[in-house]
Fold:
Amino acid sequence: MRVSPIVWAFDDRDTVLEEAKRSAEVTHDHAEGIRGAQATALAVYLARSGANKEDIRSDIEETFGYDLSSRKIDYKFEVSCQKSVPESLLCFLESDSVESAARLAVILGGDSDTQACIACGIAEAYYGPLDSDLSAEVRSRLSVDLLHVVDDFGREMESHNSPHKINDTSMGGDKKYPQVRCYLLPPNGTAAALPPTIRNQRQKTIYLVRHGRSQHNKAADEIGDAAYDDEAYYDAELVDEGLEQAVHAGVSLRNKGIGCVVASPLTRCLQTASIACANDVEGMGGPRTRRVVIEHVRESGKYGHHPYNRRRAKEAISPQFPDFDFGEIAPGDDTVWALEKGRDGDGAMVQARCQHFLDWLAEQPEDTFAVFSHCVFLQQLLDVVLDMQPCTENWQPRPEYDGGTSWFNKGQVQGFVLVW
Structure:
């Protein structure tokens, strides 16, 4: 029942049969067990290669000696390979979709989970991926660990050419980025409930923080969206409420063992980070805690390109925040804002920055980070690049923003563990 995925990793018949044999020998080291695994693998291989059903039927009969003329009317529960494999193959041969193959395997009776795995593994290679509704229903029943296995496998196999290339509905998405697993930290928690299988993998703890309420936020509440295009709020600063929110963010970050503070180069984020880390305690912005400014985590123009998201020149802003390392910020005018102006309506640019941030984070020596950023960047990071992996029940639904769920309140702090 577990042999079908092997076929997607190899592209010639002899290798597929040999790897199927190796897989079966671990737990089914018997001639019939090996024959059943190889017959299933060959059927998937032939289906994946574009063979029609009659060619698949005759090849399996000739190679393995199974009778695939018709399903047995008096079939009863049977766990042996020599009885269950031919019937499972017939469930595929008599089906007209992946779903019907599953239904025939269940109706058949017997070792239904094994039969359905065999029949549907072949059917997926023959018919193509599940339809989106059925795929969504199946995925809703899988644990986070199993979803990671499915999605990681789909991405790994994505480069293989086949008539029915593994794609977004069958294997969890035609993702543009390498998979990073993301686990939500419980409120006030410092450790996620990680599955045992990944506890020893490389991981980072990050506390994502949205900046406090700023001048453009207040103005928009008073005069409407026209405030967003007003040059008066260029690189907007925090208002009094935002200063208080920054203090509260600092309280939330206490005793979290922060090893590095990361901030967007926009003033409102730098102010929030400076105030939150002002208690001068090691592990929370103190003298031995690194503070770094990077462009990756700055705000996006996905929902409009506004002056409040244009940073001041490095030479003007860095003296205000002497505890921060501006080494990764280019001098002069804001070239990132200019590059993205009017070009990121689909979010591709901010999503690329999200991935650059993850790549950067993976290479840093610290284990725990406080990251001060912006609402759209955080939403795109969590909902798109990290594929809404964290538990969504803690987020506010915002359907006007692409159905996004990870919309941070101003000054909100939320912790995650990222695993590579």
